[in-house]
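Please think about what follows:
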Amino acid sequence: MPPDEGPSLRALMSSESASPYSRKNPFPATHPVNRRLSGEGSGKDTRHHEISLAGSGLSYEVGDSLGLFAANNPTLVSEVIAAIGATGEETVPGSDAVPKPLRAALTTDYVITQPSKEFLKALVERAGDAAGQLCDLASDPAQKKALEDYLWGLEFIDFLRGHPSVKWTAEEFVKTLRKLQPRLYSIASSLKANPEFVHLTVATVRYESHGRQREGVASTFLAERWPAGETAGVFIHTAKHFRLPEDPAAPVIMVGPGTGVAPFRAYLQERQVTGAPGRNWLFFGEQKRASDFLYESELTQLQSEGVLTRLDVAFSRDQAAKIYVQDRMRENARELWAWLEEGAHFYVCGDGARMAKDVDAELHRIAQTEGGKTPEEAAAYVEAMKKEKRYKKDVY
């Protein structure tokens, strides 16, 4: 925490008590900026979003997340309504048990993409042997992994259209649905640098499976279905586990490939505006430098101003052999180890399935090669960093 912040400001920044808005009572925010970050030739559609908190009383600290209540795609809603033979005007219970028209409930209240267990169970019961492979897999607990593989890329609409003989009333169908939950996004801005605004860095999820185009609900809502003048419900999700060091002089090492760079953009803004003297080192990775170097001009400007002490980048598709952030860590192992020995805090944000594990393995390896530690001693060193809250992850 910067030294110029008194206790009253600290209390304000770490609490939502100053605002009447929360997850249960989200703020109706507007979305004035929706800008594509990825360039021509990119295989991704990554966007910079700016959302106004003006008049909300909401505040946040860097490291926190924004919760967004997104709406389902109205085209998919219409397809589901048609598939169950409804009009959309039927009255059904909303997720809060308050009656509302079916179309409204399917738009804002329920998950209508990945099928729920309740729906699959009801479908098997109604279709019987006609459910085919689904019937066989769903009835055998030992086939859990095979069932997951079978269901990958399939949605409600596939099963509804695949079994037109199975009839559903609007209420019967809704009873099998799960509540549509808000999506949390790492905040990519400092409130001190951007009063009354919150920035997000979001990759728009689109893919094809089983001959049909699919999409992520919240990411495409942000990219395509939230016009600048309309409102959507948002709230602040506090993440005390992912804060900057309390000592502004402490060095910081940040590993954030892809949209994982979001909280580190916020960290750098915060350290710049507060004049924190600590050194900052960012490892960023993506596919192609020409089209996927997110916030390139901002980062290079921060580097030229001395706020960003080091910037190491890895673009996996710019050469024959793929290069990732952990490879850049290995190339700079001696200096990275020196930073750690000087008390640097180590942060990782992004893909938890592979990237974070590879980065963690490289961190252990550096403790061995540069620190002269045995594998057991390296593991103890990394564990001590975690206990000292010097090794923090925000992965998904």
About this structure: The chain has 16 helices and 15 strands. The first strand starts at residue 27 and ends at 36. Residues 90 and 102 are 5 Å apart (CA to CA). The domain at 244-395 is CATH 3.40.50.80 (Rossmann fold).
